[in-house]
Amino acid sequence: DVDVEEKVDVIISEWMGYMLLYESMLPSVLFARDKWLKPGGLILPSHATLFMAPITNSDRYEGSVDFWCDVYGINMSALVPLAKKFASEEPSIEIVGGENVISWPFVVKHIDCYTFTVEEFKSITTTYKVSSMMLAPIHGFGLWFEVEFNGPAESCSNLSSDSSPLDIIQKKRRRASDSTVVLSTAPEDEPTHWHQTILYFPDPIGVTQDQIIEGSVTITPSEENPRCLNIHLECSTGGQNLVKDFAMR
Questions:
Q1: Residue 22 Cα distances to 3, 95, 219, 231, angstroms
Q2: Is 41:10 a contact under the CB 8 Å cutoff?
Q3: Which PANTHER family does the record associate with it (predicted)?
Q4: What is the C-alpha separation between 218 and 235, in angstroms, rounded?
Q5: I need a surface site. Which of 4, 21, 99, 133 has the fewest CB within 10 A?
């Protein structure tokens, strides 16, 4: 409803939510872009990339699930199934470190705010295939993001869902050596108030070093409340398969 007398040179908005897309504020920025931004104008931040990787976090699992097997000497293991349900029902917002990530991350979505459309936001799907870097239980998947502050043709990422780990590393090193301004919420970087978003499994899945982990993830806004997200995750590690839906409210 705002009436602006002339087109604007810059649109700046802190629209990023947990795991980048939560709260669905990006469509408002795209609306403002299409209605008010001058040709060649700036959008800040200009580009965003959502990453995902399997994680291990035995301390968290033991504290929320195994804890009930011995509560100060009392066996309350009857509550374990309920604890597993609650631990894996919704995404968890918490801080994990680089040591918790057991494979190179993959790109869920790269967003160019100069060209991205609201239609694309309605459903984001990617497939993945990564290799475990260690013998460890997978307790779930972690998601995080980074945003860049650039002009329309200056993104230093241009990462797609099929970008290799080497592509990601090289682009990150290249970015560190130039003047690009980047805000990162990755586990190996300084913690932010966005933390990381973790999709916990009801039960851990054991993997060996170099074992292939593959599947798909789909993110859609909730029909009941578009500020919320529905996440559909499929994961296969050879003989073990998991299909899980998460509601981020």
A1: 28, 17, 10, 11
A2: yes
A3: PROTEIN ARGININE N-METHYLTRANSFERASE, PROTEIN ARGININE N-METHYLTRANSFERASE 6.1-RELATED
A4: 12
A5: 4
Q: How far is residue 118's CA from residue 157's CA, in Å, rounded to a whole number?
A: 21
Catalytic (active site) residue 14: yes
CATH number at residue 242: 2.70.160.11
Number of domains within the chain: 1
10-residue mean pLDDT profile of the chain (249 residues): values are 90 96 92 95 96 94 88 93 89 95 96 94 95 95 96 64 58 60 95 96 94 97 91 93 93
Structure tokens at 42: 């700036």
226: which residues sit within 8 A by CB, 6+ positions away? 24
In a domain, 1, yes or no: no
Active site residue 90: no
Which whole-number Å values give the CA distances from 105 to 6, 50, 156, in the listed order? 43, 10, 18
Determine, yes or no, domain membership for 141.
yes
| Backbone angle region of 238, left / alpha / beta, with phi > 0 → left and psi within -120 to 50 → alpha | left
